[in-house]
Every structure is written in structure tokens, then in C-alpha cells.
Design a protein that fits this description.
The protein is mainly α. 74% of the residues lie in helices and 0% in strands. It has helices spanning 10-30, 33-55, 59-64, 70-101, 106-126, 133-137. Helix 1 (10-30) packs antiparallel against helix 2 (33-55) and helix 4 packs antiparallel against helix 5. The model has no long low-confidence stretch (mean pLDDT 79).
């Protein structure tokens, strides 16, 4: 069985794993146990907030609990797109600033190259070529009954 029985737990679990990994990496990397404790407390609070938000009967709750309808899925896709655009722009700006200051800038290049590569790979996986009608119209052909 590859699907989780309780879909609403995916977001809190991923928030917990990600938050714990970040707080452990920062705390162990800097040798500060206080950073680990504070990071884990904040992670626990975030997990509880995500879990409780997912239980509410609202748009945000439906998206967090993975029980969204088509409109909410569209909202989630648009929010993901905005997040990707902001991530690319932030990494490009950080790369330019780091290069201007004479600092190491290749990590920022890796970030936006990875984002661009993942975009192209996802187009190949989901079947929309960059110049096709599906890419322009938003994959409306997928919704046509054949």
C-alpha cells in the first residue's frame, strides 16, 4: 500500500521532518545546543498549527489536508508558481550581490539552475512541451472525455 491512510497528516509530518533537519543542521553545525532546542520547539508548534489548520473546513484546511477540489488545486498550483518565481528571483539577486561583493556565488547559481531543471523535467514528465497548446492553455485537453 503506497498511499497514506490519513491524508491530512502529510503536511504536518513533512513540516516536522524538515524543521527538525534544519534545526539539527544549524545547531550541530554551529555547536549550539540552544539552537536545536529552540528549533525543535518552533517545529513542534508549526506541526500543531498545520495539523489544526488542516482540520478546519476552509480552503486552507482543504489544501493542507490534501482534500482539495479543483478550484483549490488551482489555487495551490498558482501559489506554487509564485513561490518558484520568487525563489528564482531571490537566488539571482543573491548571486549578483555575492558576485559584486567578491563572495562565493556558485551556491545561488545551483539553486536557480536546479529550479529551472526541475521545471523542464516536470514538463517532460507531465507531457506538455514548451511550445505546445497544452502548455499555453493550461492543460485543458487533459479534462476532455475521450
Amino acid at each position: 500500500m503506497t498511499r497514506m491512510r490519513r491524508h491530512g497528516l502529510w503536511t504536518p509530518v513533512l513540516a516536522g521532518v524538515g524543521g527538525s533537519a534544519i534545526s539539527l543542521a544549524v545547531g550541530l553545525g554551529r555547536g549550539k545546543w540552544e539552537a536545536i532546542v529552540i528549533g525543535e520547539v518552533v517545529t513542534a508548534i508549526a506541526v500543531v498549527v498545520f495539523y489544526l489548520a488542516g482540520r478546519h473546513d476552509s480552503d486552507v484546511g482543504a489544501v493542507l489536508a490534501r482534500r482539495a477540489d479543483e478550484r483549490q488545486v488551482l489555487i495551490r498550483m498558482k501559489a506554487s508558481r509564485v513561490s518558484a518565481v520568487v525563489g528564482v528571483l531571490a537566488s539571482v539577486v543573491a548571486c549578483v550581490i555575492a558576485a559584486a561583493m567578491g563572495a562565493t556565488y556558485w551556491p545561488f547559481e545551483v539553486i536557480y539552475i536546479a529550479i529551472g531543471a526541475s521545471y523542464l523535467i516536470s514538463l517532460a514528465i507531465y507531457g506538455a512541451a514548451p511550445g505546445s497548446d497544452d502548455a499555453v492553455t493550461g492543460n485543458e485537453a487533459d479534462h476532455v472525455d475521450r
